[in-house]
Amino acid sequence: MSTIRRPPMRAADYEDAKRIARHGSTDERAALARRADMAPELLFYLAADRDSDVRVAVAANGQTPPQADRLLADDADERVRVALARKIAALAPQLDPNSQDRLQKLTAETLARLVRDTAVQVRAAIAEVVKSMPDAPRDLVLALAQDTEIPVAGPVLELSPLLSTEDLLALVHAPPGPETVSAIARRPHLNETVSDAIAQTANSPAITALLRNRSAQIREATLDALIARASEHVEWHEPLVHRPHLSARAARALSAIVAEHLVQALATRPDLDPATAEFLRRQVVKQIAWGTPSVPTHRSDLPLPVDAFAAAGELKSRGRLTEAHLLAAADRGEVRMVAAMLARAADVALSVVERAANLRSAKGLVALCWKAGFSMRAAASVQGLLGRLPPDAILAAPAGTWPLTEEEMRWHLAFLARESAAAQRHQATAPQAMQPASG
Description:
Layout: H1 11-23, H2 26-34, H3 40-46, H4 52-60, H5 66-72, H6 78-90, H7 102-115, H8 120-130, H9 138-145, H10 150-159, H11 165-173, H12 180-185, H13 192-199, H14 204-212, H15 220-229, H16 234-241, H17 248-255, H18 260-267, H19 274-290, H20 306-317, H21 323-331, H22 335-346, H23 350-358, H24 362-372, H25 376-385, H26 406-434
C-alpha cells in the first residue's frame, strides 16, 4: 500500500499544532485535522476528539495512520464512517488481507468491517468508489452486488466490469433484493444471454428497465415474446416502440396493442420498410375512425368482438380460412382475428380459445391448431401470440409431426371445453349469488 510521504512539520509548527489539538476551537481543530502535512500521532490524537466534525476530517485525511482508521471504523457518528469508507475504498486495489505488512493488513480489515457496517450509507459510499474499478478486489464487488439494499448493490450491478455473465445470471435467478434485477437491466451493453434471463422473469419493472436500456442486446425472438405479453403491461409499450432495432413483424404486432400516438411514432421510424410504414399509417387512421381503445389494460382482448368472429366465419364460408391467412394475421399481431380464425377453423366455441389463451396452455393451443387442420408452424405462432409464451416455453416439433399424441390432443380439447363451460356457468351464477335473499 503506497502512501504519500510529506515533509515533517517544523518544530515550531509541531508545537503550535499540539496546542491547537488540545485547546483550540472546533474550527481550528477541524482545520488542523484536514492538513496534509499533519503528524500521524496528532491525527491519532484527534481521532478521539469530542467533536464529530473533527473526527470526520481525520477520517478523510490520507495521512491518518491505519491504527486511527481502525478506531474510526467503530465511530458512533455515521458521517465519520462514511468519510472513512470513501477513503479506504479508494485504496482497495492495493489491499491484500493476506499481506505480511501489518499496516496494510490492518487497513484491509478496516475495509472489511466497513463493508459489513449496519448503516446503508457507509456501504453505499464504498460501492460508489469501486463501482467502475477494473482492479478492485472481486470478493468485495461480489459482496456489494449481493447486498439487499439497492443504494449499495445498484452502482456495482450497473457498472462494475468485474461481474461476469455467470455472476449476473445467478443474481437474476436468485435476486437478493427486490430491485436487483432492475439494476442489472440498466447495465450498459448488456449481453443477449442476460437479457434473455431478465425477459423470462415475471419482474415487470426489470423488463421495463431492460427495454429502456438502448444499449442492451435483445434477441429478435425475445423481443417478439415480450411484445406478445405486452397487452398486459402498458408500461412496456413506449420503450418497445422506441427500441433501436425493430423488425417489421414486431412493429406490426405492436400496432395492434399500443396507443394511437405510439402507432404514429412507429410509422415514422426510419428503419422500417415503406410497406410496413404505410401499414402503420393505415392503422392510425383505423384507430381514429373506429375509436379503438388506445391501450388494453388487462387480458380482456378475449372474448372477441362479434365483428372479428363474423369476419372469420365469412372467410371460412368462402374457403379462405387458410393457414396462410392465419399466419399473415399473426405477423400483423392481430390477436382478435387470429383467435377468431382458430375458433372457426377448429369448429369450437370462442370461449374454448379464450380459455386456452388465458391458461397460457401451450398443449391446449397446439391441440386447437391440430383440430383446425393447421401445421406446427401455425401452432408455434399461435402459442407466442395468444398464449404469450416465451420462446423456451413454446412446444415445437419437426415438420409434419406433432409434439403430442392424438390421444393427448383430444384430452386437452375435452379439458378446455369443460373448463370453458365451467367458467361460463360461474359467470352466469356469480351475480345471482351476490344478491340478497328475498323475504
